[in-house]
Each structure stands twice: as structure tokens, then as C-alpha cells.
Amino acid sequence: MIFTPKALGSSNLSAEELKEDKKNLIKYGSCGLGKKAIYLNSFYLDRVYYADMANVSRVYKRVAMSKGGFTGKGLFGSIPYLVVEFKDGTKKVCNFKYEEHVDLMLDAISEAYPKMPTHSVEAEKRLRKAEEKERARFVKNLSKEAIQTIDILDKAKLELEKDRELSTRLAYDAKQKRTLDSINPTYRILAVAVFLAAAVCAAFGIHLVMTSGIKTGGVYVLLGFAFIFFVISSHVLPTGTNNKRYGDNCYRNTLSEMESKLEKISNFPLPAIYAHPIVCERMIRVIREGRTTTIDGAMELVKKDLKALNPSVTVTQKEYDEVVVVKPLFTVADYA
User: Fold this and answer.
1) Sheet hosting strand 37-40, strand order edge to edge
2) Which domains are present in the chain?
3) Which of 6, 39, 68, 117 could tie 58 with a disulfide, CB 3.0–4.6 Å?
4) Between the CA of residue 307 and those of 311, 319, 335, what are the distances in Å?
5) Residue 158 has pLDDT above 90, yes or no
């Protein structure tokens, strides 16, 4: 941050406190989190505001869809926002490019400030209702085998939560790999061609402006830069971090790190490709519902449930939050 961020609400850290806090800043997309303050974006600029966490009453994710807000549908067509509510009744809404950055930031806030609410009031009500319906589906008298399996999965979940960042990174890299793999090479070639043509158009326009004036060359300059920005914003143009090889390397490195971690844990019940606390939780859920009593059976049912989900399926907010995180782990491995 070149400029000093502007305080929001009644935040008033001293210049020295703010300078020290910025040294500990961890960036999440266009926002960030320090030890004392949360740093927020404007529509165009990153981390231009800050708020003392002592003055924050609630932080949560808002997902805008085709009908606005959470609708229960459209798993793959969301626009993420971070909403920060202050104790004085005001709030700040920040747009994000990637939903994973919002989730990572909320995880960090939950870890650093365990008492901080990370759902909206309406979402908390929906979650309570969903939990009540979920508990109603649970079998009251589970078999001994089912109870033992749940105990194993609970312990596995606790192990993964000790290094939640690694599981989160694995899910993020899986989604990134899936996205990059799905881009048609023809589109990339077309994007490069359009970009080069736009660059030539802009350069020709600049030449005309210098030789013949703004009226003659201005249109070419505007048209060239318009197409340049259009191609860049499409995220199809290949770059150092936007290509298939980069996605493969990130995923393989993180998966290798997870495999090394799990090798040190005796008889870990999940393969490294699916090692995430949410996967454990979903496996425990299908056992509590009486659908199976074994680890293998629970994993197969989790795969079946995830396969059945698509953008037209209605889900609860809890289900949505889980699926957008862990489904890429399964799709990138082709549900192996």
C-alpha cells in the first residue's frame, strides 16, 4: 500500500500502530487482515480503507446471483462480496474477484477472533433451521460399527483442522486447475490474436495522434485499448499464472505436501486428494443418517451426492458453502 488507508467507522489507530499493523498484513484478494485491523477495498482500489477490529460487530460473505443474494440455486454463477458491519450500525461491502479469497479471509478472521460472527443474521437463522432439519434425519440408535466409524472420521477431521490452511489451499488449487483445464485452447489462441490486433490498433492510433492530431487517431486509440482491456478481463489470455501448466504445478505441489503430511498419520481414513474437514463432515453426516456404516460406503455416498448436484439443483446455504469448496476436489480427480 503506497497511500495510508482511510479509517472507517470510529477506527482511530495511531500512525505508528497502523504502520506496524500493515507489516503483519495478510492479503486476501483486494482486501487484507492485520493483527489489529481489517483492510478493505473500494470498487477500483485495493486496501484503501481500514477498520479497527475492535469496532467490527460482524463479518460475512454475501453471494450475488442472477436473482440477487443467496437463492439456493446457481452453484457456479456467483459474484462474491465481503460485508463488514460496525458497532455504530454502518457497514462496508467489498467486491471480490474470487470467492475462495473471501472464504480464506473469513477462516482467518474466525481463527483470530473466535467470537466474531461470520454469517449474517438472516443466514444464521437459515443455518439453525437447516441444522434442525438435518438432526431430524439422523438415526437415534446407531450401530456400534457406525459409532466407531464416526469416531475415526472425527479424529481425521481434527487432524486436518490443525492445518486448515493446507486443506483450503488444496481445494483452491483443485478449483483453479479445473478452471484452467476447461478453457478451450482455441479461445486462448483467439484471445492472443485479438490482443495483438488491439495492440497494433492502439499503437497506430497513437502514431496518428502524434502526426495528425487527436481527431484522426483518437478513435483507433480508444478502440485498441477497449479491446485490450476486454481480452484481459476475460481471463482467457495466457499469462504466467493463467495457463494449464501453472494450474497443474500448483495442484501437484499442494497435493504432494498433503500426502507428506498424511504419511505421518497412522491409518488416515481419507486419500490425500480428498483431505478436507468438510469431506469428513459430509461422510459423518451420511453415517448419522443411517445410509451406511463404513468409511468406504460413506465416501461413495459423498461422491454420489456431489455428482447429483448441478446449477439447477436447489440447495441450502450450508450445502452451497460446502459444495463450492469441496466439489472441485472430486471433479479434478474425476471422482476416482
Assistant:
1) 6-7, 49-52, 37-40, 31-33, 26-28
2) 6-115 (2.30.29), 139-182+242-332 (no CATH), 185-233 (no CATH)
3) 117
4) 12, 14, 8
5) yes
Helix (H) and strand (E) counts for the chain?
11, 8
Report how far residue 179's alpha carbon sits from residue 331's, in angstroms, rounded to the nearest whole number.
11
- In this structure, are residues 299 and 283 in contact, taking their beta carbons and an 8 Å threshold? yes
Q: What is the pLDDT of residues 101-123, one digit of tens each?
A: 898 899 899 989 999 999 999 88
Contact of 156 with 267, CB cutoff 8 Å: no
Strand ranges inside the chain, DSSP E: 6-7, 26-28, 31-33, 37-40, 49-52, 56-64, 79-86, 91-95
pLDDT of the residue at 78? 66
pTM for the predicted model, two decimal places: 0.70
Computed on alpha carbons and rounded to an integer, the radius of gyration of the chain in Å comes to 24
| CB 308, CB 252: distance < 8 Å | no
Cα 185 → chain centroid: 25
Distance from C-alpha of 258 to C-alpha of 305, rounded to nearest angstrom:
25
